[in-house]
Specification:
The complex is a heterodimer. By secondary structure, chain A is mainly beta. Chain A is built from no helices and 13 strands. Chain B has a single domain, classed as Jelly Rolls (Sandwich), CATH 2.60.120. The chains are: A mainly beta, B mainly beta. Chains A and B meet through strand 6, strand 7, strand 10 and strand 11 of A and strand 1, strand 3, strand 6, strand 9 and strand 10 of B.
Chain lengths: ~170, ~170
């Protein structure tokens, strides 16, 4: 039996700009795999952002989010995107637009439930939006010793398309 | 795709190496590195392949990867013919250190080199740092696992772990 366990699958009805995946991080797992296939409902391209949620259900907005992304474009020169001390993970799951364009990828999150280690994440996705096509390779660290039980992904204005889906797995250590 | 656990090593707070073995098929294998932190600030973490359970220290390790930083331009990490392969550039002595993944290819094949892909993210005292790239041990013989260690001979904190999975 695989040590990878599906914990949550979240879809949307196309009317929300924010998706919360609650109560997926626990003491049962230290490492999580998240797959994302996300589009939006209008023709405006957006970065797919992320914040963590603590055990009280509060979305954490402190300025402790670091990121470093290598944007490897098919249609232009590569770009480095980095931000220390932001209040969210900018482009955590890539960028998106309306179908058939999307941001599709996989992330691994380490130690989100721990209150003695930072929450860290690596992501690799391919994003297409408005003629741009890029493979994004990314690292993220939430520099707080806060036990987190879930995460929020959100767009700055438009809504997620109804075809969007997020799957969260726990990687069991026996 | 799934992962079937093969083996794990968890530091009790005194370990200076973390070794996982048990590769005995031609499948791809996957290593999770968790809480890779020692008592040394700015510890660099290297790896070696194991042959019949013993780390190979011959000078046959090559690597090429991209180094990501939250505060400065990204750089390249390259080296040929080292006596080990670097996998984490710098880990802090607090807050969980480094975490990451290794995909292992052709380890069980005695007629090819042993290859690995590296992805990790590390807490450093002044920044967030990560690596994405690959390494190889250029000896055509079977390897049965990996061993990691700090280049400043640091002692891994309690809970520092290497977990070996077979990709299924």
């Amino acid at each position: 039996m695989s040590n990878l366990r599906l914990l949550n699958e979240t879809t949307t009805d196309g009317t929300v700009s924010s998706i919360q995946v609650n109560d997926v991080f626990s003491a049962d797992f230290d490492i999580y795999k998240i797959t994302t296939d996300l589009s939006n409902d209008t023709d405006s391209p957006k970065g797919i952002n992320m914040r963590l949620i603590n055990s009280s259900g509060t979305v954490l907005t402190s300025t402790n989010y670091d990121r470093a992304i290598s944007e490897m474009y098919a249609n232009q020169a590569f770009v480095q995107s980095r931000t220390p001390n932001a209040d969210y993970f900018n482009q955590a799951f890539g960028l998106l637009k309306t179908p058939p364009e999307a941001g599709v990828g996989v992330s691994y999150i380490f130690n989100p439930f721990s209150s003695s280690a930072f929450t860290t994440m690596i992501n690799h996705n391919f994003s297409t939006w408005s003629g741009s096509k890029a493979s994004l390779k990314s690292i993220f660290i939430f520099k707080e010793l806060t036990s987190c039980t879930g995460f929020q992904t959100y767009l700055s204005s438009t809504n997620f398309h109804s075809t969007s889906v997020i799957k969260t797995y726990g990687l069991r250590i026996d | 795709m799934g992962f079937l656990q093969v083996n794990k090593t968890v530091s009790d707070g005194t370990a200076t190496t973390l070794k996982v073995t048990g590769i005995d098929t031609d499948s791809t294998y996957f290593v999770v590195l968790k809480l890779i932190q020692t008592q040394n600030n700015n510890e660099t973490i290297n790896m070696r392949v194991t042959k019949s359970g013993t780390a190979d220290t011959t000078s046959n390790y090559d690597r090429a990867y991209r180094i990501f930083s939250s505060i400065s331009d990204y750089s390249f990490g390259t080296y040929q013919n080292g006596s080990s392969g670097r996998i984490m550039e710098n880990v802090d002595d607090a807050n969980g250190g480094g975490n990451g993944l290794l995909y292992l290819y052709d380890f069980n094949n005695s007629s090819t080199y042993s290859w690995w892909n590296i992805e990790n993210v590390c807490t450093v005292s002044n920044q967030s740092l990560g690596v994405a790239g690959s390494g190889v041990h250029t000896v055509a013989s079977a390897s049965d696992g990996v061993e990691i260690y700090g280049t400043s001979t640091g002692t891994f904190i309690s809970g520092a772990s290497a977990i070996l999975y077979k990709v299924i």
